[in-house]
Automatic annotation (TrEMBL):
SUPFAM superfamilies: P-loop containing nucleoside triphosphate hydrolases. Gene3D superfamilies: P-loop containing nucleotide triphosphate hydrolases (3.40.50.300). SMART domains: DEXDc (SM00487), HELICc (SM00490). This is DEAD/DEAH box helicase. It comes from Streptomyces flavotricini. GO terms for molecular function: helicase activity. The keyword 4Fe-4S does not apply. PROSITE patterns: HELICASE_ATP_BIND_1, HELICASE_CTER. It comes from the Bacteria.
Length: 817
């Protein structure tokens, strides 16, 4: 019984709910805009008032399971270190900031002392200014150098939108400094004719790790003057660098440090994160250098009201007759509609591109019924749009022209959208870090804010809305990354050798596993030793060996068959489930059917259609143990961690009615199997334990399967991942263990650190799993406890009571945490 990584939101259906739109007239959030009438001098409604209006009526009120009130907080001022240039301080004051907060001044002092530092304070606490003050001061000093280049700084953001937003902010702040600060974005959207200017003249280059990996480091001779003068490297939103992506970025930064040393530079790293646990350790692991932390947030904060919202049960029945809740997507569309009608500026975050499009479309339709002028004030924002489309949406949201935006996490990170009143979060985003990051988008100007988490029909979401302490009484997760993962490290050693021949002393920079990998790379004829160094041997670019986002493989292009128009791309790893022949594909509100998937040429041909169904892929998975690295006895049971090989094959797909989710039929597919070598945690039980737990052979498969589903759903509470990062297999008699076994594995080659985290927190993780299953109100299992949206076996067999008894017996002899 196995699971692969289906894209989130693959078949979210709208289930209409009768409701009356809220039509109270309240002032809009940004009322004094050129070209718009001035609103009455009524006070902005408080977050509590807005929530009260949303929850009017017994049906709506019952959906709020918990409300958390975070009180306002006073700020604590300090003074800038005297080594900050007076003209930089004057520019900051001209921007309306008379004095820094204590954490801003402390971080700036560390930077001026040449100490790498991470600022880990709340959203909108002014982290940007904490690193910009010393950076601008250094750039302004350097502008007086004879060649006018002087010091340089590099800014890394996880998204293009954040880099573009930061350039705008730097230009505004540094305007009084004249030509001393020359910021420029250098990414895939930068026109070719501008790139040479950036290389030669910009002294503050804003880019992303992808461009650093593929564009800047391989062409380092052309960046020699910039790298030679590199004083600071700013890494914004550093908590996003986790798992496989974070591991790749860690190695990219080591390559950067190596080249800087070659040119005589030793840059200071300045990192920022609104949400991180043990930020100094995480930042040190990411950069490879010692990092200090500044985590005492001295900024003021307005009142925050945070509501947990559970959609109601419907009369519909899903797989095996399980009760079905109204979808979080449909519920969010309703709430967004009501907030826009109230004039409340809102962003609704949703995990999938399809979900963002659907929420926007439905909200527009419903707003048109209230006021024909309102639909144009709502839009969708997601990856895959053209750069000019993204920039226009960001400007419209920033100015207040847009009242509502349905967005993927592409808008989560740092883009300044000051003035928002509310945030809707469509399903738990996978980590508490992301939850608070998204919630922090509202109230960025210091005003009060409303955040609403709308639960999906999912074990983790259900658990959280009924256990609010898991969100509000626990710190954010530790950042999990593994730079020593050989699947990550090997291509970066090749890339480093292509940039400069790799020497013995260099290997220590890349970690202890580097020396062990070199002979394998030589055997594969990727590297060749000449004299005292290893050289890249191929004609192709070594940086093309890996996609640092961790997807791997060549992206599959989605092409309209009739016109040849490129609609977009899908990651190779998701192609078998997302664009198989017969799959339904949604793009900018239009629906397409996949007519052909050509794996050899990485092309999916589609044609526009309006099918009354969605599609869901089915798969089979098997797993074999390659090496058991660690084993802990839990009485006669065993908890293990090690390396495994997973074989997965998509074998068919289901067609489901859009409204009810009813299965219309199943079609077979002929796709090749794929193998994955990764890391896993697994546990076994003995026959005696099964007898004691009253789990007989007839229900054993269902009990194991149910425990597996629920444990996958709950793991994001303990590791920095979501259920789409991991997979699982449960077997009544596994050939390698010769016992009933449940595996949970990382969905990335070589592992991503999630299974290892699960191993070290297994007692708490499996206890929460058992409690979540036991607390669910359903009789025999449902999507809120043991059914999985990505089950390749159609959620069959499952046995809820057997899973509870099995986990209880397993945990009875677990060692103390």
């Amino acid at each position: 019984m196995a699971f692969n990584h289906l894209p989130a939101g693959a078949h979210d259906a709208f289930r209409p709910l009768s409701r009356t739109p809220v039509t109270h007239s309240v002032p809009m959030a940004n009322t004094h805009r050129p070209g718009r009438p001035t609103a009455p001098e009524d006070p902005r409604p408080t977050p509590g008032t807005v929530l009260d209006r949303l929850s009017r009526g017994p049906s709506r009120a019952a959906r709020i399971t918990h409300t958390e009130h975070l009180p306002p907080r006073e700020g604590r001022h300090a003074v800038w270190p005297d080594r900050i240039r007076t003209d930089v301080v004057a520019a900051i004051q001209a921007a309306g900031i008379d004095h820094p907060w204590e954490h801003q001044a402390a971080a700036a002092a560390h930077a001026l002392d040449g100490e790498s530092v991470v600022v880990a304070t709340g959203t909108a606490s002014g982290k940007s200014l904490a690193y910009l003050a010393p950076v601008l001061s250094a750039l302004a000093d350097g502008a007086q150098a004879p060649n006018g280049r002087g010091a340089t700084a590099l800014y890394l953001a996880p998204t293009k939108a954040l880099a573009a937003d930061q350039r705008r902010a730097v230009r505004e702040l540094a305007a009084p400094l004249g030509n001393a600060v020359r910021p420029a974005v250098y990414d895939g959207d930068t026109p070719v004719e501008e790139r040479e200017w950036v290389r030669q003249y910009a002294n503050y280059v804003l880019t992303n790790p992808d461009m650093l990996h593929r564009g800047i480091l391989p062409a380092h001779p052309r960046w020699a003057s910039f790298l030679r003068a590199l004083r600071y490297v700013v890494i914004d939103e550093c908590h996003t660098y986790r798992g496989v992506f974070g591991s790749h970025v860690a190695q990219v930064l080591r390559r950067l440090r190596r080249l800087c040393a070659r040119y005589g530079a030793d840059p200071v790293f300045l990192l920022a994160s609104a949400t991180a646990s043990d930020p100094a350790a995480a930042a040190s692991r990411l950069t490879g250098v010692p990092v200090l932390e500044v985590a005492d947030d001295a900024s003021p904060r307005g009142e925050v009201v945070f509501a947990l919202w559970e959609p109601p049960l419907t009369e519909l029945r899903g797989e095996k007759g399980a009760p079905v809740r109204r979808t979080a997507t449909a519920e969010t569309a309703d709430l967004l509609t009501d907030l826009v009608v109230q004039g409340v500026r809102t962003v609704a975050f949703v995990r999938s591109r399809r979900g963002a499009e659907l929420i926007s479309v439905i909200a527009k339709e419903r707003l048109a019924e209230v006021d024909r002028s309102l639909p144009r004030r709502v839009a969708a924002y997601r990856g895959g749009y053209l750069p000019e489309e993204r920039r226009a949406l960001e400007r419209a949201l920033h100015s207040g022209e847009l009242l509502g935006l349905a967005a993927t996490t592409a808008l989560e990170l740092g883009v300044d959208v000051s003035g928002l009143d509310a945030v809707l979060i469509t399903g738990y985003p996978g980590t508490r870090a992301s939850l608070w990051q998204q919630a922090g988008r509202a109230g960025r100007s210091g005003q009060g804010a409303l955040a609403v988490l709308i639960a999906r029909d999912d074990p983790l979401d259900t658990y959280l809305v009924h256990h609010p302490e898991a969100l509000f009484r626990r710190p954010v997760e530790a950042t999990v990354l593994d730079p020593d993962n050989p699947y990550v490290l090997a291509p970066h050693l090749c890339a480093a050798a292509a940039e400069l021949p790799l020497t013995e002393p260099d290997l220590a920079l890349f970690g202890p596993a580097a020396a062990e990998l070199i002979p394998q790379l030589e055997a594969a004829k990727l590297l060749r030793r000449r004299a005292t160094a290893w050289h890249w041997t191929r004609r192709e670019r070594a940086s093309d060996l890996t996609d640092i986002r961790g997807e791997g493989g060549r992206p599959v292009q989605i092409v309209e068959a009739a016109t040849g128009r490129l609609l977009g791309t899908v990651d190779e790893s998701a192609a078998h489930t997302a664009v198989h022949e017969g799959a339904v594909h949604l793009h900018q509100g239009r629906t397409y059917l996949v007519k052909q998937l050509d794996l050899e040429d990485s092309v999916a041909l589609v044609e526009e259609s309006s099918p009354p169904f969605s599609t869901t892929a089915r798969d089979t998975t098997s797993i074999s143990v390659l090496e058991t690295e660690t084993e802990i006895p839990w009485g006669p049971a065993r908890l293990c961690f090690g390396s495994v090989e997973v074989t997965n094959q998509v074998v068919s797909y289901l067609r489901r009615k859009l409204i009810t989710g009813e299965v219309l039929g199943e079609a077979k597919l002929d796709l090749p199997p794929r193998t994955l070598r990764t890391r896993a945690v697994w546990w076994t039980v003995t026959e005696d334990q099964l007898d004691e737990a009253r789990v007989n052979p007839e229900i054993l498969g269902g009990a194991l399967h149910a425990a597996e589903h629920a444990s996958i759903g709950l793991l994001p509470l303990f590791a920095t991942c979501d259920r789409w990062d991991i997979g699982g297999v449960s077997v009544p008699l596994h050939p390698d263990t010769l016992l009933p076994t449940v595996f949970v594995y990382d969905g990335h080659p070589g592992g991503a650190g999630f299974a290892e985290r699960a191993f070290h927190t297994a007692r708490a993780w499996l206890t929460a799993t058992r409690d979540a299953i036991a607390a669910c109100e359903c009789e025999a299992g449902c999507p809120s406890c043991i059914q999985s949206p990505k089950c390749g076996n159609g959620n069959d067999p499952l046995h809820k009571r057997g899973a509870i008894r099995l986990l209880t017996r397993l945990l009875s002899e677990a060692p103390p945490a």
